[in-house]
Amino acid sequence: PASRSIHPRQGRATSLARSRARACAMPRGPSSAGGGGGGDAAAAGGAAAAAAGGERALHRAGEALAEEDWSAAAELYSQAVSTLRAALKSSGAAVAGGQALLPLGQALSGRARSLAELGRARGSLAAQTGILQAAVTDARKAVLLARHGKGDVAAAVTCLVNVLIAAGQYEQAESSVREAIASEPKSPELRALSAEVQQKVLAAKMDVDAADGRSPGTFRWPLAMALPELPQRSEAAALLKSLSDEGWEPFLRARGGDALVATAHTDAILLDGLSFPISLAWLLTAGGAVRWPKGRIGGRLHVIVLGATARAEARLWAETEYWQELNHLLAGCCEVQFDFVGPELDPVPGGRVHCLTPPCATQFFEARPELTAENTICAVFNGGFGNFVASGQEGLLWSWWPDLQYLTDRGFLCTFFCANDYADLKGEVAVHSALLNSQFVVAPRRNPFAMATVYSDDGGPDGPGVDKEWFSGNSFLYVTCGRGEGGRRRGEASDEDGPEARQELIDRVMAVASGSGELEVASTEPPLLALGAVEAPAVAAAAAPAPA
Asked: What's CA 312's distance to the chain center, in Å?
């Protein structure tokens, strides 16, 4: 799930001061001085007043919690806990149990959540030992009170597991749900919670791995999670026929039968990982992004993955054989050599991973003049440089801008994959159209081999479902090659442009991106590759992609 920033709301300090004032002004129970029935009545009245005061504090605490004012909420819930405990003791309800226990359970759950959020706001909750222990203790007590009071056990258990997950205690969170289900096996809420907790644990592990300051990207699977192994490869000719607009299922059946289809249904990381090489394989064959030399095979095709990251493309290269699927599918016409280039890469044995600071592509190609537009293609997976049309954050565009100009000037075939259409795709296509006048070999469209995992937030500022943001890796694609007349070339705008020049470029892009209706793009023929191939034997030609 995409993380959302929490913006403090104004007026919280004033609200807290008023809450404290009201708490101090809460009516105290009448004195118990006196004797006989009068004393009992006074005690009962004091307990009732205390209970009412506890309910008011509980309500104010809920308001602070809704405003995400964790400190105020924790203090107000503490007031509610103290007051409600006093009321229960005075009335004897603590011994009798029943519904009277439920407000105290709600106060403990609320305080547990407030403390957990307060701990996370200060850094890692696991590192805040005192806060963590208090939050877990409160949450466990709330579960016990919900059971004894016949209250909402599922809500109390949900609070407990959320605290445990926030603290990184994943096994305890899952075991708490199992224990609750064992106590109430017929509860549909608890069974639904079991599946929800598995997702929350997975999301929390993703967030922990993404907390190193690098871009989290679209391939967020925990680093400790192994990617599924692939079965032995079948013949390339059969696999090539399975690459079509019908998407994953025909390919998976051709690649590994029902077993591989079943794995994909239960383990989304499989499709997320395969999406990189198979999307590219489809574009270079059935997708029509290139023309292959007629009747010739062999030679080397250089595939340069630009903007690659250690978490995604390079991880697949280091830990799996997934990238070799492209080599296998194109074995009838060429040998593929991969290079991974980007600023967020770690060293990997073999010399194919290159950590470079922007402009990455410019540096990489200028050091390798043997790589040309005739023997090289570039792949950019979820580059995100068009997202600024929705987010307003332009930094990623300017880091890509020199390379986009360089690649367009050199006439490299560039395949771009985007994680959504409303921001990434719209913004990128607008950059190509308004600034570069790029020629499109494949117009913007859906990718039949997109990732399986979809990330989304809880909704926009108006609540769930409103202005909801989402992304799913490699969901959309387009391919460019060169430019038409009038595009902005290197030297006309650079990374050193002043704010006025940059704003002029942004305004041009926004004018295109905000237009209604479909955006027309300049098209061109797929380029003919020249790989130094040799005449193809008649048998091998059957396994090659369609020639020019």
From this structure: 13
> How far apart (Å, rounded) are the C-alpha atoms in residues 450 and 405?
27
**Tally of CB atoms within 10 A around 458:** 13
Is the peptide bond prior to 359 cis by the omega test (within 30 degrees of 0)?
Answer: yes
The radius of gyration computed from the CA coordinates of the chain, to the nearest angstrom, equals: 30
Nearest-angstrom CA–CA distance, 303 and 414: 10
Per residue in 258-271, pLDDT (tens digit) is 999 999 999 999 99
* Amino acid letter, 392: G
pLDDT, tens only, 51-75: 787 788 888 999 999 999 999 999 9
- Report the C-alpha gap between 63 and 511 in whole angstroms: 42
Residue with tokens 């939050």: 135
Choose the most confident range, by mean pLDDT, from 93-107, 343-357, 445-459: 343-357
41 token code pair: 């009545």
Asked if residue 309 lies in contact with residue 217, where contact means CB atoms within 8 angstroms, the answer is: yes
Q: What does the pLDDT look like over 402-419, one tens digit per residue? A: 999 999 999 999 999 999
Structure tokens at 356: 């470079």
Distance from the first to the final alpha carbon of the chain = 44
Local structure of 251: helix, strand or coil: helix
Rounded to 10°, the helix 102-121/129-148 angle is 160
Confidence class for position 276, pLDDT limits 50, 70, 90: very high
Residues near 255 by beta carbon (within 8 Å), at least 6 away in sequence: 230, 231, 233, 234, 239, 242
